[in-house]
Design brief:
The complex is a heterodimer of chains A (174) and B (233). With 174 residues, chain A is of the alpha+beta class. Chain A has five helices and eight strands; from the N terminus they run H-H-E-E-E-E-E-E-E-E-H-H-H. In chain A, strands 1-8-3-6 form a four-stranded antiparallel beta sheet. A four-stranded antiparallel beta sheet of chain A has the order 2-7-4-5, with no helix packed on it. Chain A is globular and about 55 Å long. With 233 residues, chain B is an alpha+beta fold. Chain B is 45% helix and 20% strand. Chain B is built from eight helices and nine strands. In chain B, the strands form two sheets. A five-stranded antiparallel beta sheet of chain B has the order 1-2-9-4-7. In chain B, strands 3-8-5-6 form a four-stranded antiparallel beta sheet, with no helix packed on it. In chain B, a hairpin with a 5-residue loop joins strand 5 and strand 6. The chains are: A alpha+beta (174), B alpha+beta (233).
């Protein structure tokens, strides 16, 4: 299957004319990642985001030399998008290709050159949705923590609570 | 609440403030001016309500003058002030982006002027390939990134407040946005000691939150991709 067909199959491009998707492929041909290769390295400079077109990625967080898988990325999902608007930051997780994968690299050059392309508009709107969900879920976590820190009267279940908190603050499940 | 057309001076000043606040690459003053010019200027007297928690999102606002208080009623029925916003802020855009209900009530904390953009206008702009559409999308993206960074900082502050000796946390960027504890077990123990503990229901809620925070998966999109791999009806 061609790269254009792969991209056209993603839900975010469902309303985008095929010609616009084809132009997007010309502007930014999807990059291939071999199974096991590193897409983003924790601690490295964060300057691009990535839209997974095919395959599967795994996200690992390393703490004190110990790596833990905290999530997966599936086709149509974006990872690392904050890098586009928060210059100078570093990746705080490693992203690996757990299968042979293809991804669209999203950087400012693409956004500028493709500003009049409906496929790029679709990417920007997809970015917005992704960020909005993260803001909401993070705000919910904050409110939960603050509320409970003010008013704890429930029976103590320290072990389970500790597991949950450990997962939350490490960015994943224990 | 009074409605007025926006004077060119206000449009110009607001666009300049927004560009200064969100200096993303290619941020264009003139394009933002054309976005703002599609709105209307409204005045809210002190204590007037812009939107209520649970409302559907019918509009968003650019704060031009005054201040807006963001409030929520907590599960115990107590009014909690989440933030007091000053100009030149964007307000109410989240509900237009993800079509969710208002998550908080916004009240004029002082006499305030806002530029109102209707949901219809925003939706039209977000679909456009014009410079105005691009400017609004990137302004919202930049604002969302700022909000996320602020939320992450609050979590980080909370963690640090429980373990002051662990001052140097790693930086975060979105997906990987949860602060990384250097000695998480000690940190958790400290927080547990401080909080006392949660009941089973609360723990389940927190677990659900972890799923959202960590995996950042758009289940709807994934499901639709699986059901409809070619993306067409």
């Amino acid at each position: 299957m061609s790269a254009t067909a792969d991209l056209s199959g993603l839900f975010l491009f469902r309303d985008v004319p095929p010609k616009a998707v084809a132009n997007l492929c010309i502007l930014a041909p999807p990059t291939r990642f071999q199974m096991g290769s590193t897409v983003f390295q924790q601690g490295s400079e964060a300057d691009v985001a990535l839209l997974l077109v095919k395959g599967k990625l795994e996200v690992e967080v390393h703490t004190d030399g110990v790596g833990r898988t905290v999530g997966q990325v599936h086709p149509g999902e974006i990872v690392g998008e904050q890098a586009l608007f928060s210059r100078g930051g570093a990746r705080s997780a490693t992203v690996l290709a757990s299968e042979e994968s293809q991804a669209l690299i999203i950087n400012w050059d693409l956004l500028e050159r493709g500003a009049d392309n409906p496929a790029v508009v679709a990417i920007e709107r997809h970015l917005m949705g992704t960020l909005a969900r993260r803001v909401r879920s993070t705000n919910m976590a904050i409110q939960k923590i603050w509320k409970e820190s003010d008013n704890i009267q429930a029976p103590i279940e320290k072990r389970r609570f500790a597991e949950r908190l450990r997962g939350l603050f490490r960015g994943g499940r224990p | 609440m009074n409605n007025n057309r926006i004077s060119p001076a206000i449009v110009d000043r607001l666009a300049k403030h927004l560009v200064a606040l969100h200096p993303y690459p290619g941020a264009a003053h003139s394009a933002l001016e054309s976005v703002i010019a599609r709105g209307q200027l409204h005045h809210f007297s002190k204590d007037n309500i812009l939107c209520k928690e649970g409302d559907t999102g019918e509009e968003m606002w650019f704060l031009v003058r005054g201040s807006i208080q963001v409030q929520r009623i907590d599960p115990n029925g107590q009014l909690r002030v989440l933030a007091t916003i000053s100009r030149p802020s964007l307000i109410g855009h989240m509900a237009l982006i993800d079509r969710s209900r208002r998550s908080a009530t916004c009240v004029a904390h002082s006499d305030s002027d806002v530029v109102v953009l209707s949901a219809r206008t925003v939706e039209m702009l977000l679909q456009e390939t014009t410079t105005s559409g691009t400017a609004l999308r990137r302004l919202l993206l930049s604002s969302l990134c700022g909000q996320l960074a602020g939320a992450n900082a609050q979590i980080s502050d909370f963690v640090k407040s429980t373990q002051p000796e662990q001052a140097d946390e790693e930086s975060t960027d979105g997906y990987e946005s949860i602060p990384q504890a250097k000695d998480t077990d000690d940190q958790v123990a400290s927080i547990v000691a401080k909080l006392g503990g949660w009941d089973s229901k609360q723990l389940e809620e927190l677990e659900a939150l972890e799923d959202e925070i960590v995996f950042v998966v758009d289940e709807d999109q994934k499901r639709q991709n699986q059901q409809n791999p070619f993306g067409k009806q």
